[in-house]
């Protein structure tokens, strides 16, 4: 009765229960108006993905009604939804990397022939509509992630979509690339294409969307005009508690006489690290601030020894460490890598085997026969200590949400005597609640007498946990600031290469000159 | 920390999971094939399929392939691939046959094993240190080592003609060993295992195993089974048993699976990936060398094309056993069962006089059907697991079987 006025797509009373009894959605509703940008936010596990899948036709709802342009529909396959005019762009863009942009954009087009000429004209019209330029003959494999995202958008438009569902479109994009996506969304919505925009980045949702729906535990807790929200209110709606207080607590500087746990001298690598030297004392959290492609992740890998081409000296607790991850682990170093699925977790191992992996000999009889009860006990301890939401230590990492999977990666290093922690984007793709937990964990590492090096794209986050910040640019440490004396603006200026800027005028804030990768 | 209960339950579910069709399907398939063949032979009035002689025969025939399958499975688990096993085995067979007369068996055998080990090391070093795809490298070494066999044999069949040499070779593989009082021995082992289980805290399983052991020992004087198997079968049992135990119960085994399932995560966890992967190749080379020696001892001759095509049978056995070609998944015992299936079919055709012409079609079909079942079952398992968990998950692509 209510939302049936001009809604392009409306979901009413949608419930989704899985055969085992998990209820992913309960009486959820959503109403997307034609030509609007609708934000969908919620913590990991709140039901956003299930809702998207219901809309895309990948899941059939167990109850409720889906209406498309006022008519009740039930899409049973993704193809049906796409034909009706709903295009869904998933987080990891499925494109054929060996084909050209043009071929990818028209991948779904029927007919037996490749018709380059007709397609080209159509492609040109599309680009004009979108206001974006890209070489149609470029091979997709050679494109940056942001460009691929655009190819996916073009692909969606080429099928004549009236509603484009975007799941975390900017999760792996650099600032400049984000702006391109925003521009395109704004432009197309002005032309009448509706967007359902799912993102963890609340600032994006606030600046881009017209309306916003907040999901928590499978139900819609709030819905309204975006203009009526600010970041604090949105966060509270998402998590149901006030988090920002803990998140914004700056760290006090550490006494300068603590023992040096890690010292790096003249470290260089062809991967993009140039003559870096620094020291980290016990209890310190060092933030590495830099733009995408500045060499910040490469620096961590060089320190850890996983970059075998790196040259230079790394001392842990005063003793030199041979350049291999094995030696690094033995010296008490731990790396939480950027891509947890590809680098951090073994997908076929349950949680307990993942957690025990780096420290297996210590949990084994005679250092060679693993004691499974001890391993399970450790996994249970990690689950309890870190608040990992999971069915139990037998769960596979693929069953966990991003934040919980990330906590499992942390769990690998908690109990093995690691003292130097290298964290590469520890909160990427993690919801607000888990993010606060992880930041708290970082502080705990330091408080326990450890040393932490943390890389993050979100400078605000660095300032929240770090005691000192090193600014990385083109593989060098170009500046050092005490965290309580600097600001996001200053770090951004430094990372962009604007020298010793004390004045936050100029290109401060978002969208400063972007350092190409 | 929650005490005993959930952990015990987890272990019990792990134990039960091992017998689920999704995990033990290959064993059920073997039982099914044997049952069908037994019924058919009984129906047609031929000598019973399950007669001790026939069973001993099948085990003997499949043992060499099964040993190769064990080591190939190790390589597959480590995330690599080895096509060169048959060529290496032939090379080692040719080596031992040409050296046994002048040097005596122990030295000739050591050299033959060393040759196998060297081939494996070459494979492993090229694959891991140069970084070429294992399929390509071992395709190359398969051809090149076959070339070495041709050079060594001069293109002709070589035989061991020296009577002493013949005798020592025959002693290596021909003949049977009889283990008396099998029930008593197995019962005693079960009793020990039961006590170990009890000590380690799983009461129910421990009591069951202990009781079963005691009953078996008590019945032994009445029933008095004895086990009479060919020597290669014993080699297989020992090799498969030890390899299984190492993979299942040691740090080395756990790390090998980790390396195969996600090499980067393993490396960043402080595991020396190259060492494990090269080690798997070296082991495979050594195993191939051993099988080559047994093969030579069996035939007392090798022709230059001997064992050609066997590498594919070995891979088929591993695939039947559910080993993933992408690494990180597999069990050597199931691969052995896979080899047994292949030879049971083979033997069944002979017993039923169906003619060898149909054999290729049937065996090929069985392999593809098995792979299809594993893939579909794996997919369903994945769907089930994802549904059981919270919905917001980046589903990691479970390795295709």
TrEMBL record, chain B:
<keyword id="KW-1003">Cell membrane</keyword>
<keyword id="KW-1133">Transmembrane helix</keyword>
<dbReference type="GO" id="GO:0005886">
    <property type="term" value="C:plasma membrane"/>
</dbReference>
<protein>
    <submittedName>
        <fullName>ABC transporter permease</fullName>
    </submittedName>
</protein>
<keyword id="KW-0472">Membrane</keyword>
<keyword id="KW-0812">Transmembrane</keyword>
<dbReference type="Pfam" id="PF02653">
    <property type="entry name" value="BPD_transp_2"/>
</dbReference>
<dbReference type="InterPro" id="IPR001851">
    <property type="entry name" value="ABC_transp_permease"/>
</dbReference>
<dbReference type="GO" id="GO:0022857">
    <property type="term" value="F:transmembrane transporter activity"/>
</dbReference>
């Amino acid at each position: 009765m209510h939302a049936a006025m001009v809604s392009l797509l409306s979901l009413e009373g949608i419930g989704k229960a899985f055969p085992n009894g998990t209820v992913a959605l309960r009486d959820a509703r959503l109403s997307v108006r034609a030509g609007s940008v609708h934000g969908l936010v919620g913590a990991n596990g709140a039901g956003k993905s299930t809702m998207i899948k219901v809309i895309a036709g990948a899941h059939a709802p167990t109850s409720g009604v889906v209406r498309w342009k006022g008519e009740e529909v039930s899409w049973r396959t993704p193809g049906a939804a796409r034909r009706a005019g709903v295009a869904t762009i998933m987080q990891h863009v499925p494109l054929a990397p060996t084909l050209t942009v043009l071929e990818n954009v028209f991948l779904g087009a029927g007919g037996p022939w490749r018709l380059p000429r007709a397609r080209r004209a159509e492609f040109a019209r599309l680009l004009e509509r979108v206001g974006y330029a890209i070489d149609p003959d470029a091979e997709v494999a050679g494109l940056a992630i942001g460009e691929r995202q655009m190819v996916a958008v073009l692909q969606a438009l080429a099928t004549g979509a009236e509603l484009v569902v975007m799941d975390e479109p900017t999760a792996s994009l650099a600032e400049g690339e984000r702006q391109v996506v925003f521009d395109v969304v704004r432009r197309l919505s002005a032309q009448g294409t509706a967007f359902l925009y799912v993102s963890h980045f609340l600032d994006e949702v606030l600046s881009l969307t017209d309306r916003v729906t907040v999901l928590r535990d499978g139900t819609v807790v709030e819905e309204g005009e975006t203009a009526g929200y600010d970041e604090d209110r949105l966060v509270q709606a998402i998590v149901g508690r006030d988090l920002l207080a803990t998140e914004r607590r700056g760290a006090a500087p550490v006494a300068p006489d603590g023992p040096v746990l890690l010292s790096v001298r003249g470290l260089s690598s062809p991967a993009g690290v140039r003559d870096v030297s620094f020291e980290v004392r016990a209890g310190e959290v060092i933030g590495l601030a830099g733009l995408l492609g500045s060499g910040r992740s490469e620096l961590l890998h060089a320190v850890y020894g996983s970059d075998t081409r790196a040259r230079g000296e790394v001392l842990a607790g005063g003793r030199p460490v041979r350049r291999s991850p094995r030696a690094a682990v033995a010296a008490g170093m731990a790396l939480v890598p950027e891509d947890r699925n590809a680098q951090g977790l073994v997908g076929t191992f349950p949680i307990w085997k993942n957690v025990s992996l780096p420290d297996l000999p210590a949990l084994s009889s005679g250092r060679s026969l693993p004691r499974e009860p001890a391993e399970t006990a450790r996994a249970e301890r990690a689950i309890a200590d870190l608040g990992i939401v999971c069915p139990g230590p037998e769960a596979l990492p693929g069953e966990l949400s991003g934040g919980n999977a990330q906590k499992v990666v942390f769990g690998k290093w908690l109990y093995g005597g690691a003292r130097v922690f290298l964290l590469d984007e520890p909160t990427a793709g993690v919801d607000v609640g888990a993010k606060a937990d992880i930041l708290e964990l970082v502080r705990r590492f330091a408080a326990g007498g450890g040393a932490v090096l943390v890389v993050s794209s979100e400078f605000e986050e660095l300032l929240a946990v770090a005691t000192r910040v090193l600014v990385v640019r083109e593989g060098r440490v170009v500046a050092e600031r005490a965290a309580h004396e600097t600001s996001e603006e200053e770090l951004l200026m430094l990372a962009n290469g604007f020298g010793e800027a004390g004045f936050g005028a100029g290109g401060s804030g978002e969208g400063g000159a972007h350092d190409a990768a | 920390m929650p005490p005993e209960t959930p952990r015990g339950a987890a272990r019990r579910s792990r134990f039960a999971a091992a017998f689920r069709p999704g995990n033990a399907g290959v064993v059920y398939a073997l039982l099914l094939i044997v049952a069908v063949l037994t019924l058919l032979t009984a129906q047609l009035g031929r000598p019973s399929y399950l007669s001790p002689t026939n069973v001993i025969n099948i085990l003997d025939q499949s043992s060499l392939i099964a040993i190769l399958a064990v080591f190939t499975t190790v390589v597959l688990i480590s995330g690599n691939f080895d096509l060169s096993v048959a060529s290496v085995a032939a090379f080692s067979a040719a080596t031992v046959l040409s050296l046994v007369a002048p040097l005596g068996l122990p030295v000739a055998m050591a050299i033959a094993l060393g040759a196998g080990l060297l081939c494996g090391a070459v494979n492993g070093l090229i694959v891991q240190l140069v970084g070429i795809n294992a399929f390509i490298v071992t395709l190359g070494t398969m051809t090149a080592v076959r070339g070495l066999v041709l050079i060594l044999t001069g293109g002709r069949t070589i035989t061991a003609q020296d009577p002493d040499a013949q005798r020592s070779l025959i002693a290596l593989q021909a003949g049977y060993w009889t283990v008396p009082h099998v029930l008593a021995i197995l019962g005693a082992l079960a009793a020990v295992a039961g006590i170990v289980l009890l000590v380690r805290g799983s009461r129910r399983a421990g009591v069951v195993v202990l009781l079963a052991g005691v009953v078996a020992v008590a019945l032994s004087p009445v029933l008095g089974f004895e086990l009479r198997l060919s020597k290669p079968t014993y080699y297989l049992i020992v090799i498969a048993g030890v390899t299984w135990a190492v993979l299942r119960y040691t740090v080395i085994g756990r790390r090998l699976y980790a390396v195969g399932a996600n090499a980067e995560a393993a490396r960043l966890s402080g595991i020396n990936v190259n060492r494990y992967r090269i080690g798997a190749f070296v082991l495979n080379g050594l195993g191939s060398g051993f099988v080559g020696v047994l093969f030579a001892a069996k035939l007392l001759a090798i022709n230059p094309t001997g064992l050609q095509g066997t590498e594919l049978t070995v891979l088929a056995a591993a695939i039947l056993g559910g080993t993933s070609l992408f690494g990180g998944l597999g069990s050597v015992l199931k691969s052995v069962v896979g080899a047994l299936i292949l030879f049971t079919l083979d033997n069944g055709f002979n017993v039923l006089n169906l003619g060898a012409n149909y054999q290729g079609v049937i065996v090929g079909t069985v392999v593809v059907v098995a792979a299809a079942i594993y893939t579909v079952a794996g997919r369903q398992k994945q769907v089930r697991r994802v549904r059981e968990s919270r919905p917001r998950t980046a589903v990691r692509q479970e390795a295709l079987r």
